[in-house]
Amino acid sequence: MKKIDIACIIDDDPIFVFGTKRIMQIANFCNGFLVFHNGKEAYDSLRAIILAGEKLPDLILLDLNMPIWDGWHFLDEFTQIPIEKPVTLYIVTSSIDPEDTERAKSYEIVSNYLVKPIKMDDLKKIMAD
């Protein structure tokens, strides 16, 4: 299993963020975290990282339902930025709406769609990919 250098969590729920970071630490999943509380904040920061030529996260865990910019808005904007190194992106949401799972498939960058809460087995599958 490959350890991830930087994991990015884009989610407005502090309990989910805390729990996910804790599970990642227990699993020795990654070396560091970037956490953003809405899609706009994440987009602005990640775009600045790309433009500065700095290292992007290896993995992005994206919630769909957030204030300011939701996950869909983030995806629509983020996919317009030319990126040299591929980023693995998982949607991690409480939505079980079949329309959301189908819509997620329309984005080439989306690797998978996970329903909250994220579990240790989910992290192990991500590490194995």
From TrEMBL:
<keyword id="KW-0597">Phosphoprotein</keyword>
<dbReference type="InterPro" id="IPR052893">
    <property type="entry name" value="TCS_response_regulator"/>
</dbReference>
<dbReference type="Pfam" id="PF00072">
    <property type="entry name" value="Response_reg"/>
</dbReference>
<protein>
    <submittedName>
        <fullName>Response regulator</fullName>
    </submittedName>
</protein>
<dbReference type="InterPro" id="IPR001789">
    <property type="entry name" value="Sig_transdc_resp-reg_receiver"/>
</dbReference>
<dbReference type="InterPro" id="IPR011006">
    <property type="entry name" value="CheY-like_superfamily"/>
</dbReference>
<feature type="modified residue" description="4-aspartylphosphate">
    <location>
        <position position="63"/>
    </location>
</feature>
<feature type="domain" description="Response regulatory">
    <location>
        <begin position="6"/>
        <end position="129"/>
    </location>
</feature>
